[in-house]
Amino acid sequence: MVSTHEEISSEFSRIVHEIAGVPLDDIQPGKNLVHDLELDSLSMVEIMVAAEETFGVKIPDEELHRLPTVELVTAYIEREQA
Q: How far is CA 24 from the centre of its chain?
């Protein structure tokens, strides 16, 4: 399953919205998942598991600290799908 950058970004935003209740308008590429969107660790785990299932990629726990923003998560998923 290979998706475009825009499709990944849109679907990841939908996942964040559904799991954490963050308004879609607030989920922007440069936003920090923890500091700007105020996601807690449980929400982060749920979001990453949903992203793995949705996009067919593995996001190792040790990678999470390297993916603080919506854009970096989107780029990571895009690279892993390639």
A: 13
Count CB atoms within 10 A of the CB of residue 72.
Answer: 16
Using CA atoms, how far residue 39 sits from 3, 16, 22, 32, 33, in Å, is: 25, 9, 9, 9, 6
Burial of 10 by CB count in 10 Å (0-12 exposed, 13-18 middle, 19+ buried)? middle
Q: How far is CA 4 from CA 46, 55, 56, 61, in A?
A: 23, 11, 14, 24
What number is the average pLDDT over the span 22-41? 96
The reported pTM is: 0.92
34: which residues sit within 8 A by CB, 6+ positions away?
44, 68
Query: Using one digit for the tens of pLDDT, what is the confidence trace for 44-77?
Result: 999 999 999 999 999 998 888 899 999 999 999 9
